[in-house]
Design goal:
The complex is a heterotrimer. Chain B is built from seven helices and ten strands. Chain B is an alpha/beta fold. Chain B has a single domain, classed as P-loop containing nucleotide triphosphate hydrolases (Rossmann fold, 3-Layer(aba) Sandwich), CATH 3.40.50.300. A six-stranded mixed β-sheet of chain B has the order 6-7-8-3-9-10, with helices on both faces. In chain B, β9 and β10 form a beta hairpin. Chain C is mostly helical. Chain C folds into two domains: about 50 residues; about 45 residues, no CATH class. Chain C is built from four helices and no strands. Classes of the chains: A alpha+beta, B alpha/beta, C mainly alpha.
Chain lengths: ~375, ~220, ~110
């Protein structure tokens, strides 16, 4: 055992000494490889953290939301629907919701207006999301005017700014009283945007959705599990951006591997011949190269992973932000819960360390089985 | 110590460029002596050394080393014997560029699993003997021809082999360095080592340090 | 003389340690983030929120889980007509599992 260990250490010594001979090239390789792992690991960590966060937070979203469809489009809920739904057995609580979108030409941004009961938000005042407040320079007790879709100007006083901790959910929110909401959007009395339901027995949600569909044929129930599923699969590996990054990474990796595979110069072949002639076995040469592959890929993996963690959870995934932002003017500032999925990390480890090591080993195989007397010819 | 019987060696056998480098060699080599193989290039003397040194196997015939038939052994065992019992000094020295003299010398010790400190001590001792201590950290491509050869010799000796095989050891050296090499050769004999070398340098084959000269031509032994 | 393998082992050990610390930090952060997460979940419950405010650029991207069946982003993954949001969002589960189970069970035509 001691001898085996000492031998492996000798092989590592040799492989490091030979790597040190082409410092620039090998450091360049390590940097490229580390960057590759960095991008992939950042993506994995970021999407996983976002999914974890969304799943936890949105678990509190309404169990069922009922929309009304007219000609295939979302339409207002007319009076009487709440009563009809109330008659369905198993519905515990229901609430007509009022919300809508407003385009603000000052920022060229879309806001989400949401009506709240008068005891929460007094008439004439609003509560605004932190990202919106930041972009429009709003603070508590400031006033702001919006021109409604009908052309009338409404002035509100900012009662408070929502906690910046909740920006991921509330970046563009404007909460106002029901009364203000109805007059601002000229919403017909008794109509609602949609209806939120809670169900007494969670097992019954699907049944109730089916009952809703038959009682109100023009309604479309959206279940909480569907909401959660939407965010479970955000940034799924098949989605465009992930696929694009992945494709780039795989391509880069292929180039790297090809460079390695074809990079076995006459000089390297001669060296392997020398090693064999002075008493190294084929297995020793292969083991030496295996160590080379493992050392480089392990170092690159660890560096890339550490870099990715710092990038995603300390610098807020700054590299991805421009992509995620898209054309959004109001983009939330958020820190994510640094959740790491061990299985994902293991998968990433396998897909980066293993192929590189193989790419290093395969070309050496042919060279390593050459006859040791080649050096004498 | 080494017995060769009816040794034949073909290259590219069965192909149009088939070539018989050795065609029937019978020879016995004594332990503790210096034997020189002399002959024109292409006479098969280097090929013969590769067979004796377990670098290659004969196409037919037997090689016996200390009474053991080694011509039929699998590569693993050949490597083992080569590592323990043979040290090689190649014509082109075959040092690994970019590594220091010291690192080159300890290379054959790696597969044995000897501790690094021990290997370095042994290498320092050899450098001392070969008067090369001041150059041990220098990269080998910065060394002169004579220094490179002494590094190659130190590398051949690191595993303390019984047999030293040198292929055209003086081909790249001037007269003064060649004489120096012959002095080192005498040191080997004094240390009880068997030396096999090829050369057509009169300075080597006519030297008193060489005990026996074997002539070769066209893959066969010729009388001197 | 410094032994190359020692240097490499030291480097790798340091990196391993950093990764272990990362996992420890990740585990520990859960506690630190819990109040924020709970507060956010309360906000979701209170306001009945259904979506993250990640895609605020257009009204039809703001609430992907609530978008009606005929709006953008509902048809195809990687819908590059609305980049980048379209390339980040999958088609809704509704499309993968259509309302076929209700077909014929309702009194009005689907």
């Amino acid at each position: 055992m001691r001898i085996w260990l000492e031998k492996q250490r000798h092989l590592i010594d040799f492989t490091l000494a030979s790597l040190a001979r082409r410092k620039t090239k090998n450091i360049g390789l390590l940097v490229a490889y580390t960057l590759l792992v960095f991008v992939l690991a950042s993506l994995t960590l970021f999407t996983n953290a976002l999914r974890t966060e969304a799943t936890f937070v949105l678990a509190g979203s309404p169990e069922v939301i009922v929309q009304r469809m007219v000609a295939g489009r979302h339409d207002l809920i007319p009076p009487g629907y709440l009563d009809k739904i109330g008659r369905i057995r198993g519905v515990q609580k229901m609430e007509g919701r009022l919300w809508g979108y407003y385009y603000d030409p000052v920022l060229n941004a879309n806001y989400t207006f949401m009506a709240r009961p008068a005891e929460e938000v007094a008439s004439g005042t609003i509560m605004v999301g932190a990202a919106l407040a930041r972009e429009r320079g709003l603070d508590a007790h400031n006033t702001i005017s919006f021109r409604s879709y009908s052309g009338k100007l409404f002035t509100f006083e900012v009662a408070s700014v929502l906690s910046p901790d909740s920006e991921l959910l509330s970046a563009d929110l404007i909460l106002l009283s029901e009364e203000d909401f109805r007059s601002f959007f000229e919403y017909p009395a008794g109509h609602f945007t949609d209806i939120a339901l809670s169900v007494a027995n969670p097992q019954e949600v699907r049944n109730i959705a089916a009952k809703l569909s038959s009682a109100l044929p023009d309604s479309r129930p959206i279940l909480r599990e569907e909401v959660l599923r939407t965010y479970q699969s955000v940034f799924d590996w098949r989605e465009g951006i992930v696929l694009t990054v992945l494709a780039g990474a795989i391509l880069a990796f292929a180039i790297l591997a090809w460079e390695k595979a074809s990079g076995l110069s006459a000089e390297e072949k001669r060296e392997i011949g020398i090693l064999k002639a002075i008493g190294w076995e084929t297995g020793d040469v292969l083991r030496m190269k295996l160590w080379e592959g493992l050392l480089i890929s392990l170092t690159a993996f660890l560096l890339g992973f550490i870099g990715a963690y710092v990038h995603v959870f300390h610098f807020g995934a700054a590299v991805f932000e421009p992509v995620l932002k898209g054309w959004a003017v109001l983009y939330p500032r958020f820190t994510l819960l640094p959740a790491i999925d061990g299985l994902q990390v293991a998968t990433l480890f396998f897909f980066t360390v293993f192929p590189y090591t193989a790419a290093v080993l395969v070309p050496i195989w042919r060279a390593a089985i050459t006859d040791p007397d080649a050096v004498m010819r | 110590m080494i017995e060769l019987s009816e040794i034949k060696k073909a290259f590219n056998q069965g192909r149009p460029n088939e070539y018989w480098a050795l065609s029937g060699i019978d020879l016995t080599l004594e332990a503790g002596k210096v034997t020189a193989f002399r002959g024109p290039s292409g006479s098969g003397k280097t090929t013969l050394l590769t067979l004796v040194g377990c670098l290659a196997r004969p196409t037919s015939g037997r090689v016996r080393f200390k009474g053991q038939d080694i011509s039929g052994l699998p590569e693993r065992f050949l490597t083992e014997i080569r590592r323990q019992s043979f040290g090689f000094v190649f014509q082109q020295f075959n040092l690994i560029k970019g590594l220091s003299a010291l690192e080159n010398v300890i290379l054959p010790g790696f597969p044995t699993g000897r501790p690094r400190a021990e290997l370095i001590d042994a290498a320092e001792g050899l450098f001392e003997q070969l008067k090369l201590s001041h150059r041990r950290q220098a990269k080998v491509e910065w060394l002169s021809g004579g220094e490179q050869q002494r590094v190659a010799i130190a590398r051949a000796l690191i595993n303390d082999p019984e047999v030293i095989i040198a292929d055209e050891p003086t081909a790249n050296l001037d007269t003064a360095l060649s004489r120096e090499f012959m002095t080192i050769l005498e040191g080997f004999t004094a240390a009880g080592k068997t030396v096999l070398l090829t050369s057509h340098d009169p300075l080597v084959v006519e030297s008193s340090a060489v005990h026996r000269v074997v002539g070769m031509r066209d893959g066969k032994l010729v009388d001197q | 003389m410094r032994r190359p393998s020692n240097v490499a082992f030291l480097l790798l050990a340091t990196l391993f340690l950093a990764v272990v610390l990362i996992f420890a930090h990740s585990g520990q952060s859960t506690a630190a983030h819990t109040p924020r997460l709970l507060a956010n979940r309360d906000l979701v419950v209170r306001l009945g929120l259904t979506d993250l405010a990640l895609f605020t650029e257009a009204r039809y991207t703001r609430h992907p889980s609530q978008a009606d069946l005929h709006s953008a982003l509902q048809d195809h993954p990687g819908a590059f007509d609305h980049f980048p949001t379209g390339s980040l969002l999958p088609p809704p589960a509704l499309l993968k599992r259509p309302h076929a189970n209700l077909a014929g069970k309702t009194t009005s035509p689907d």
